[in-house]
Amino acid sequence: MSVASERRYDPGTVEREWQGRWEEEGTNSFTLEELRTAERPFYNLMMFPYPSAEGLHVGNIYAFTGADVHGRFQRMQGRDVFEPIGFDAFGIHSENFALRTGVHPMELIPSNVANFTRQLRRMGGMFDWDHTVDTTAPDYYRWTQWLFLQLFRHGLAEQKEAPVNWCPKDMTVLANEQVVVGECERCGTPVEQRLIRQWFLKITKYADRLLDNLPGLDWSDTTRKAQRAWIRRSRGAEISFPAIGTEMAVAAFTTRPDTIFGSTYMVLAPEHPILDAVTSDDRREEVEAYRERTRAMDLVARQKVEKNKTGVFTGGYCLNPATGRPIPVWIADYVLMGYGTGAIMAVPGHDERDFDFATAYDLPIVRVVAGEGEGADDPLDIAYEWPEGRLVNSGGYDGLSPAEAQRAIVDDLSAQGLAEPRVNYRLHDWCISRQRYWGPPIPIVHCEECGAVPVPEEELPVVLPRVEDFRPDDSGVSPLARVSDWYRVPCPACGREARRETDVSDTFLDSAWYFLRYPSTDFADRPFDEEITRRWLPVDAYIGGNEHAVLHLLYSRFVAMALHDMGLVEFEEPFTHFRAHGLIIREGAKMSKSRGNVIIPDPLIERHGADTFRLYLMFLGPFMAGGDYQDKGISGPRGFLHRLWETVVPREGELRDGAPDARLEALLHRTIRKVTDDIAALHYNTAIAAMMEYLNAVRAGGREAVRAEVEALVCLVAPFAPHIAEELWHRLGHAESIFEGANWPAYDPAKAATRESTLAVQIDGRLRGTITVAKGLDEEAAVAAARAEEGVARRLEGREIRRIVHVPDRLLNFVLG
RNA sequence: GCCGAGGUGGCGGAACCGGUAGACGCGAAGGUCUCAAAAACCUUUGCCCUUGCGGGCGUGAGGGUUCGAGUCCCUCCCUCGGCACCA
């Protein structure tokens, strides 16, 4: 073999050699039979990348390396590790890039995928290239469409009108992220709202389960908290306020029904449907003008821009059902149609926002809760929002605590049919319609007779046609709506002429189930095989960025729960273990093209090798916190691997056999323990530091190592630097791959034990010296040993010792009088 | 505003359960080897005072608990990330 004879470490040669052998020998891939029979399956998942034209950046490599280290570590401990990778290639990113460059996405994506594949192979990930996924391949999105149909059949998909951000110049729908303070991020035109019929998945039906399962998940705490905050459940009541002069009532959601006696006015969202009915003729013009102004703002700007509250009086009144008195009805943009009922009972005395509004428009502020030491009619100079105190000015409820009053008031109003207990969520149903081209068509046919009819499953996939002009237009519908020979189809139910749904689905739907597909890509006739799914899922370890803490992870959980309820999978939580990694920054700032501080990994990998680059990235800082990229820093890990090589492959002669040095052997076992614990906890940086420390000790003073001192070290290094580890393992005489068989070294506590310990000697808590003593030395002997130290003895001379604190093998503290 | 993470040498970062702060690495200085360079190896490297011995000060700021605090408690400041009028 060419490599084997070379005595110098040349990373490029070693890495290409082993990447070739892994590929040839199928080291990292599973056959269908192996997937069926794996005895200790471990599904190691990482978030699949969006294959951009720029290629993999350091951030991707960082994330994948960290996950790969964990996978290789599990494998060396004897698990059958399945580590797949794929491409999340649909979506607006590719579409916009294609529009800009004029390259059709159907050409762009395959070439990007090819480039990503090359880079992923080059970084030495343990990927199973026989089980990849590309969300834009018809044999993948066929099953994305299938999934939509299952949700539809089970009443979890519905079409309804919803507002979207619309840029009148670009003539396109914009995602919230594309709207910057009320303007289109591309052209700066003020964004409008439009109402469009769109498909929604009813994730809110699962809100309680999504919330209540969280404590049982072994996830990064930050991620669980983000999900909790995103769903945000609030319990309260919906209360009816009869609108005077009409037959209708305005329903308002509140979490504080106990404060109803303090509700001195109501506020409706400007879009509220009852608005026309309550507005008086003399106010109509002003109300319309305000409504118009609000409509011109997109949802994001409306929530961000105005700190000062604005609003107008409608001229209408409702009856406060508790006091029986009429209260004025206003509209204001701080009330959102999308939450609760789109109407609030304003309680300015006990809600900060209502207080601000009432102050600005001179509306009455009444106290209905008195805190400790406060009187019933003490004026309020800020809203009293706390749920402690006693009710006042509240008729028969005076004297109750807010909690008691909540129950009593809701009970009494419910009896009159004016209230009912209610739970609200911040979480909204998931809008999956995209009026765009680059996505899987939603598999529905609209028929005038039969309504929305699902495409029969055997007709899937509904293939996205190749369309040269896929620019969005003024119509507010997908570019597919211009392709009449595609959308005109007979109704699957009645056969009459009908029309395909021309919207495509959200990319998050593609990624909400990809982990189910990986182990089953051998099957063309089913999305996921029952037997294989039972063996491999739920995912054992999922490592990814916290930018997906909410959406992707929440949608995946929802899909898994829905499939579980349909009886299609056994689990309801897809990821039992999730860890969020940190971000790579540079000079204290996030890498971005606009800052010009982006690192392109390819030249670095060419120059130093993938092993060095991997090791360097993992050494930067704690994996879960991220790290600061420094150009010169790579020389540390590079030197370490070169020294490791030279230690195992001496320039002259051969590595000797023989007994290891006793001190080194003890250190080796402590290193094994530390590296094992640290990798398990994803503390990669300190694991690497420990290996460096050990190698430094092995080579101290230019000494030559013996085999027993370095063989285990080669194994410890393997998860981080797999190629060099393979090569050295091979040169140490092993025929099989270091990753075949459980080669992770065992920690032997007996060998790790030391006979001596260093004791810190303090006087009054200040360090005055250290002494080396036999392990487990008792206090009396330790004191004697310390007193023998000149510096210690001098300070103790003639002083009274009030107390001695002795922590065996650690410290001895003399407290003087 | 709310929630979350964090603030330690010139830099990235270590530090178990409160027990020698600064592991490991970068950078810097000096040296060995070499025609030279690279690589490798050796020594030094928190700050201040001191020729030296030695001493003092040091983990965002201030206070507290303790024999002992980077670590625990209180008050405050700053940075980063997320959510943001959710009734």
CATH topology group of the domain at 233-425: Isoleucyl-tRNA Synthetase, domain 2
CATH architecture of the domain at 233-425: Alpha-Beta Complex
- Residue windows where pLDDT falls under 50 for at least 5 positions: none
Globular, elongated, flat, extended or rod-shaped: what is the shape? Answer: globular
Mean pLDDT value = 89
By DSSP (H or I, 4+ residues per run), the number of helices equals 29
The helix-and-strand class reads alpha/beta
CATH H-level superfamily title of the domain at 233-425: Valyl/Leucyl/Isoleucyl-tRNA synthetase, editing domain
**Beta strands, count:** 35
Report the end-to-end length measured between terminal Cα atoms. Answer: 75 Å
Alpha carbon gyration radius: 34 Å
Roughly how much helix do the residues carry, as a percent range? Answer: 25-40%
Order of strands, main sheet, comes to 2-1-27-28-10
Strand content of the residues, in percent?
Answer: 15-25%
Q: How is the biggest beta sheet arranged?
A: 5 strands, parallel
Name of the top-level CATH class of the domain at 233-425? Alpha Beta
Oligomer: single chain
